[in-house]
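Entry 14. Ran structure prediction on the chain below.
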Amino acid sequence: MSVDAIVHTEFPRGYTVLFGADGKVIMTPQSEEHSSTIRSMQIDSAAALGRHAKVTSDVYIDFPADENSAPDLAILRVDARRESKRYSFEDVLLISEVVFTSSARKDYDDCTAKYGRYGIPVYLVVDPYAREVVLHTEPTANGYSTAHTRAYGTGKLPIALADGRTFTLDLDELPVPDPDTDTR
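Output, structure tokens:
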């Protein structure tokens, strides 16, 4: 598929569309909980860091060896600058992925190893289905040496960023799947 064809293609509503380095187009349905969770984290980031903080959502970030990622949420350094229309992994202070039915293994295992290997200071897994978040810190060559789990509904979770700022995630405000529509 050519770039021009991709730009002019109307993809179905409710899907996240990713373009792999090998030319594959990956379409993943996005649940209401997934979308609402990202929006909730964006609101919390604006409240904690200011509305003009460098926070991206589903935007490609350059990693070495063509391992680019478009995380659900990324908080960047204040002085981060785009190169070739993208930010570098070196600009990232926190990455968060929201677990979706088809992404659980990737979010919990693959991304934990990848983001740790590249030294992302904080990796946050937000799981609406388990109703918990897993906060990974202290990156290592194989992932992270520290992981703390907090349940939804347990108040505010302050997360220290490497630049001295604090991102506070309100665990009482994260949406949970409707039991009647839970398609896990």
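DSSP finds three helices and twelve strands in the chain. Will compare against last week's run tomorrow.
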